[in-house]
Write a structure and sequence with these properties.
Elements (H helix, E strand, L loop, with lengths): L8 E7 L4 E8 L1 H5 L8 E3 L3 E3 L5 E3 L7 E3 L6 H11 L3 H7 L1 E2 L16 E2 L1 H9 L1 H6 L6 E2 L2 E6 L9 E4 L7 E4 L2 E4 L5 E2 L3 E12 L2 E8 H8 L5
Parallel strand pairs: 2-5, 2-7, 8-9
Antiparallel strand pairs: 1-2, 3-6, 4-5, 10-15, 11-15, 12-13, 13-14, 15-16
The structure holds zinc ion.
């Protein structure tokens, strides 16, 4: 903080018998006001929903808005306690689903990579912020593969012969491959994919380059 004081921060995860859970960030006095422990019943008033980490909550800054365990006098507390009695807190962590975190096919938690439409990706890639920051943009696309092609003007093959040391293109002469980049000469070189695909979704289409292993994934076979 600007005045040099360290502001306490604490994150807890709350859940219930719906098997959903969500992180709650507690700041400042609220973080130190109670002794938060796993397995407690907790009531939180006036939380603010944020999009951080999928979805999460920011707690109020008034300790009196948070009530824990025995001081709660509501029927809901008994219901939650009954549910907790039947569950081991440690196991819950693995079985509960984080709110706002889409489940993946393989069961692992989703990453923070956004899923965009092609039009949104183009807009993002062309935005001033992206260009100025000079950082790559990562996203997931749900799209159809329209064509696979080799860009015009190249030597019209789906692959090139790559140096086994540096992966750059090698020159072949009389059965030997010479790498202009690292200077290595060898009798062998690795065929490596370099082609393009056009993919589309409801918002538009885009051309993507497919090198090496990505090409293998798309075509389902290696370049040999
Ligand atoms: Zn090389």
């Amino acid at each position: 903080m600007r005045d040099g004081k360290v502001k306490s921060k604490r994150t807890i995860t709350i859940g219930d018998e719906s098997n959903s859970c969500i992180g709650v960030t507690l700041w400042g006095v609220v973080a130190d006001a109670h002794s938060y422990q796993a397995g407690q019943v907790i009531a939180l008033k006036n939380c603010r929903v944020s999009d951080y980490n999928g979805k999460s909550l920011n707690a109020t800054s008034f300790p009196s808005d948070i009530v824990i365990g025995t001081t709660l006098r509501e029927k809901r507390k008994d219901e939650l306690e009954a549910w907790m009695l039947g569950s081991a807190v440690g196991d819950l962590k693995d079985t509960m689903r984080q709110i706002g975190d889409a489940p993946r096919a393989n069961g692992s938690k989703g990453s923070n990579t956004p899923t965009l439409l092609i039009a949104q990706l183009k807009e993002l890639a062309e935005s001033i912020d992206t260009i100025n920051s000079n950082k790559p943009v990562y996203c997931n696309l749900n799209c159809d593969l329209s064509w696979v092609f080799v860009p015009e003007g190249s030597d019209r093959q789906m692959f090139y012969m790559a140096c086994e040391s540096c992966k750059k293109k090698v020159m072949e002469s009389m059965g030997r491959y010479t790498c202009e980049s690292c200077g290595k000469a060898s009798e062998t070189a690795t065929p490596t994919y370099n082609f393009s695909v056009r993919v589309s979704d409801c918002s538009g289409s885009i051309i993507l380059s497919c090198f090496g292993e990505i090409g293998e994934t798309i075509l389902g076979m290696n370049a040999r």
